[in-house]
Amino acid sequence: MATITFVRTIKYVAEILEEDPELLQAIVSNDDNLSYGSIISVYTGDDESMTALTDDGMEELEQMLKHARRSPDEWSDFLDGFVDDKELVARIKAKSPR
After folding, report:
1. How far apart are the C-alpha atoms of 78 and 19, rounded to whole Å?
2. Residues 66, 86, 24, CA angle at the centre, nearest 5°?
3. What is the pLDDT of residues 7-54, one digit of tens each?
4. Which residues contact 18 (CB under 8 A, 6 or more apart)?
5. Which residues pair with 51 in a beta bridge?
6. Distance between CA atoms of 72 and 32, rounded to whole angstroms?
7. By the 8 A CB rule, do 25 and 35 touch?
8. Degrees (nearest 5) of the Cα angle 70, 32, 43?
C-alpha cells in the first residue's frame, strides 16, 4: 500500500469532478462503496469531522460515476442503489444528464 501524504475533502473533489457535493457525500457515506483506505475521516473538533478521499479514492469515484452515466437507465439505477436520500436522488435526476 502506498503512503498517503495528502487527501482532498469531498467538497474539493466535487469541484474538481464538477459533481454535486451532497451526491458524493451520500456515495462515500457507505465506506463499502470504495476500496478500503480510500475514504478518510478528518476530525476537526470533539464532535466534528469531514470526509476526504485519497488519490485512489477520487479516481475510483470518478470511474464509478463515469460508468454509471453510460445510459439514463444505468444512471437512474445507480442513484437508486447508492443514495438513500430520496430527495437528493430526485434533485439529481431532475438535472439534465451529462
Report:
1. 15
2. 35
3. 999 999 999 999 999 999 999 988 788 888 899 988 988 888 889 999
4. none
5. 41
6. 24
7. no
8. 115
